[in-house]
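I'll show one example:
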Amino acid sequence: MLAVISKGEIYGYEMIERLQEYGFTMVSEGSIYPLLLRMKKEELVTTRVITSTSGPKRKYYSLSPKGENELQQFKERWNELSVSVSKLLD
């Protein structure tokens, strides 16, 4: 989710749609919103509320500096894991 948010400010329902576009078809509101709340509490994201022209106000999420750092660390760990798995499978 941090990677999706890193591409630009996004609101909750849009996050669900974006994750589904990437192939995460089992994603639902019941799983996304608690994770967004947790990321907010851990200060990985910042939020701002914007009035919508088509419905209720929307809470937009952006990466905080701490979130950017966490994403970078995740990418590094993922690359290390990917290399190890590739070696194992070769």
Remarks:
- The first strand starts at residue 10 and ends at 11.
- The domain at 2-89 is CATH 1.10.10.10 (Arc Repressor Mutant, subunit A).
